[in-house]
Design a protein that fits this description.
The protein is mostly helical. It is 78% helix and 1% strand.
Length: 279
Amino acid sequence: MGFAQSGRGANFVRRWRVQSRLKNGKHQTMIASYVASAKSSWFDTTKALVSFLRSPRPNSLRPMTARSKMVTIVWLFVLSALVTAAFALAGLPFLLMSEPTVAGGLSNVIDQPVVTMIVTVVILGPVIEEMMFRGWLIGTWQALIGTTAFVAIFYIATPFAKKFVDAPLFVVQLGITALGLAVVYAIALIQPRPRIKYFDRMFPIFFWAQGVLFGALHFGNLYSESIALPLLMTLPLIVCGWLWGYARVVLGLPAALALHIAYNVPSAVGMAALMAMRA
């Protein structure tokens, strides 16, 4: 008589089946709990975002768990991608009817070597733009001074360093960017952190304006006979400026930087592919 046919074997099989059902039930319970928790987190994050956009306030920074921060960052990234995809789909007919060309500063980036392009699009561009448009957005003297110091260090030191440092320009700029961020961090440690007078009252204007200006900065990156296409490519960046502004105020500057960097990665991959086809 075989093992599976014996009484001992039958008991073993029954125990194994019971244990398997218990494990499967436990896994299903864990998955259901995780899904329910995720849904609740998405809902809470969306509710907080809508509440902020209805009445923007610069003092919205609040303590959050690492998991809550991660959920918020992921959801804001998803929203950024969805908004961009929606406007890209709306602009598809105009893209097919015209022959748009890359223009402005973006054309200069594409003309660079691949490594330089990737560093510029994924690191330098996001860091510089976040500091300029949203680094100061919480309205404290430290944030304003830090932003001013970073911009001054980058744009003054870069041409000076090029004359004395024998290295590719993007390497020099990376070093200067790291120095600028170190200065920003050191200034941010200074206590207390008073907010600029009347900043709270003017904050809604500052918040909406920074998103519009951020999008307008990229308006000239695409040239087309129809203004509709560049406009449709600019509008999602305005919305992203508002989403990342929310991240800056609620989660802090690193969160806004992470969102901008992650958002630019697909663009860098696409430009690298375009450059490879043109080679």
